[in-house]
Amino acid sequence: MNQAILFNDNATYCSDKQCITFTAMQQGMRIECQIATTFDSSEDAIAHFEQWRFDYEEQAEELIEAEAFSAQGIITLKAYK
User: Fold this and answer.
1) What global pTM score does this model have?
2) Quick one: 66 exposed, middle or buried, by C-beta within 10 A (0-12, 13-18, 19+)?
3) Is the pLDDT of residue 1 over 70?
4) Phi first, then psi: what are they for 14, rounded to 5°?
5) Integer Rg of the chain from CA
């Protein structure tokens, strides 16, 4: 894992946007990472994120290094099921 990219321990679920959001830091820049997926509850979404955390962080790291940012500066990840 690239030590230049640090991940925040907290993830949140927004039912309105239907996505899990977490953040990364690279060279002092805060990067929002989103996983577009639906869950019945915030608790289910966070449990899912915790189960797949390492894989999501690895996917985010690859996308950040590839500079695959959206026009809004967000990294969008594919959801694991």
Assistant:
1) 0.91
2) exposed
3) no
4) -110, 110
5) 12
